[in-house]
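Lecture notes, part 5. Sequence design as translation. It can be helpful to think of inverse folding as translation between two languages: the language of shapes and the language of residues. The source text, in structure tokens, appears below.
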């Protein structure tokens, strides 16, 4: 029995020695990262409001937008900085770019539009109708929305070599988002070019792995989800009464490349230094 207890103690000491030697999860550690994301969107409802109209589009499907002949993954960039507030607990401040547009579909529209206002898609008076995006000029898209997030993550060590030149850590976390965006709409008298501004808030949940190479460089694949509560989407910079309300669910897969470092003195942390 004593032998078994000794073996368990020996294994525990060795395991914790490896944790200490890795250092990447120590308090006071900084990280910086840059990456891209691929997004898919849940069906949602948009409410359009203005002095000349009030109507809804329900069960709407969106697609991720690409621009300037670039891949949609490149267009959906993300970067940020992070800090280990305590061992295995990280606080991260991030900025993400998000663009999406109406997928080809049969739109379900209901509400009212002042007769003569809509010269593009022909909506007029009280209606409960359907419009095909293939046969009408009605359009809705959000380009280059900026998501500013503050998230917390908890890390669990999974594997590390003896000198911690290669480590694998699992993380899970979540946080809050501030959304800055504007919608470009094909509706009314002309295509509008609205001004980017604060449009709402959101929540984020994510999990993934962090693979650290040579103690300082890491690759971090993540999967997660966002919910964006946009209550004041700008539609026309010249008319503040024209807005849209939109709650959007987003499924996301992302990958980031980053670096980790400890800015203090080496004797203050048993962790890798440059």
């Amino acid at each position: 029995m004593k032998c078994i207890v000794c073996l368990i103690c020996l294994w525990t000491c060795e395991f914790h020695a490896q944790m200490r030697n890795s250092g990447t999860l120590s308090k006071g550690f900084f990280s910086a990262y840059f990456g891209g994301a691929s997004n898919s969107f849940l069906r949602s409802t948009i409410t359009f409001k203005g002095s000349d109209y009030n109507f809804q589009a329900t069960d709407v499907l969106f697609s991720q937008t690409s621009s300037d002949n670039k891949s949609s993954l490149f267009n959906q960039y993300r970067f940020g900085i992070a800090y280990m507030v305590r061992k295995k607990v990280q606080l991260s401040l991030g900025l993400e770019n998000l663009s999406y547009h109406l997928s080809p579909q049969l739109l379900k529209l209901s509400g009212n539009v002042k007769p003569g206002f809509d010269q593009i898609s022909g909506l007029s008076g009280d209606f409960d109708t359907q419009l095909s995006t293939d046969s009408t000029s009605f359009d809705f898209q959000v380009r280059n929305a900026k998501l500013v997030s503050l998230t917390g993550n908890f890390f669990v060590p999974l594997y590390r070599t003896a000198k911690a030149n290669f480590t694998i850590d699992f993380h899970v976390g979540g946080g809050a988002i501030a959304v800055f965006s504007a919608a470009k709409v094909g509706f009314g008298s002309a295509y509008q070019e609205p001004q980017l501004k604060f449009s709402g808030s959101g929540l984020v949940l994510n999990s993934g792995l962090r693979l650290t190479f040579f103690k300082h460089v890491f690759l971090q694949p993540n999967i997660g989800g966002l919910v964006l509560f946009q209550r004041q989407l700008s539609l026309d910079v010249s008319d503040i009464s024209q807005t849209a309300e939109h709650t959007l669910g987003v499924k996301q897969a992302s990958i980031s490349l980053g670096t980790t470092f400890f800015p203090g003195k080496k004797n203050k942390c048993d962790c890798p230094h440059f």
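The translated text above is only one of many valid answers, since several sequences can fold into similar shapes. The helical segments are 2-22, 72-75.
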